[in-house]
Write a structure and sequence with these properties.
Elements lengths: L1 E2 L7 E2 L1 H50 L2 H5 L3 H43 L1 H48 L1 H6 L3 H27 L1 H25 L5 H15 L2
Helix pairs in contact: 1-3, 3-4, 3-8, 4-6, 4-7, 7-8
């Protein structure tokens, strides 16, 4: 323990400080290890699932009648076989991992918030329905446009694949202009659907930030009153605000 100059009776407990430093190092190493294990497991799970799905889709395509292929372009089928499978793989490996991490984070932070102040925790919970309401409104609207985006992407890929495969026939019959016009039409629809999907999905974050800021203001006001009445320490309020920010992020 070292004395602090100019402050009577004050001292720094270096033994306790080093204990906290070592504890933090151990916690960070443990967190890194479990993150590695989680990513390793999820990578295996997602790739095995997609591998099985690709095999089943390939077997299904071999059993389908010729009428199925006559009514669809090769590029559209390839788009379903590649783009959709890649999206499923990304969802399993990234989104599912984020969901698991978010659930654990929410539970852990909720416990810490309850330990600090049940009243402020209740105030935080009151603001949460506003966030769910925003997601409930915006998510279905963007979902519809994302579906249109992938539909038009499949049509565009089918058109491009057919035009390049039958390039010689296209040139022989002079259908270049019609091919370009169809490409421009489908590309325009793809652009419009993609723009709407990204724009509406992008609105989610500002509205979520607004609801989170409302909760922050409510916690700051209630916490200030509690500090004034000596019902809670100002350090606890600062810690609670940080926890509330992390609580709404997942």
């Amino acid at each position: 323990m070292a004395k602090m100059k100019g402050v009577p009776g004050a001292a720094i407990d270096f033994a306790y400080v080093w204990q906290m430093v070592i504890t933090l190092i151990v916690l960070y190493i443990t967190s890194t290890f479990f993150s590695y294990v989680m990513q390793y497991i999820m990578a295996g799970v997602s790739q095995n699932a997609v591998y099985q799905m690709r095999r089943e889709v390939n077997e299904k395509l071999a059993r389908l009648p010729l009428s199925f292929y006559d009514g669809r372009t090769h590029g559209e089928i390839l788009s379903l076989f590649t783009n959709d499978m890649d999206n499923i793989a990304n969802m399993l490996q990234l989104s599912l991992t984020q969901i698991i991490t978010s659930v654990v984070t929410i539970l852990g932070i909720l416990v810490m918030m309850l330990v600090i102040s049940p009243l402020l925790t209740a105030i935080t919970m009151v603001v949460l329905p506003l966030s769910f309401f925003v997601v409930r409104i915006i998510a279905p609207k963007s979902q519809k446009h994302f579906s249109e985006q992938w539909k038009h992407l499949g049509t565009l890929n089918g058109h491009v694949e057919e035009m390049y495969t039958g390039h010689a026939i296209l040139k022989a019959f002079g259908h270049e202009r019609k091919s370009i016009e169809k490409f421009n039409t489908v590309n325009e629809k793809l652009f419009d659907a993609s723009w709407r999907a990204q724009f509406i999905a992008g609105l989610l974050f500002p509205f979520m930030a607004l609801s989170n800021n409302l909760g922050y203001v409510a916690i700051a006001v209630a916490g200030g009153v509690m500090v004034t009445n000596r019902a809670i320490a100002i350090g606890d309020i600062q810690a609670f605000i940080q926890y509330s920010r992390q609580f709404t992020m997942p």
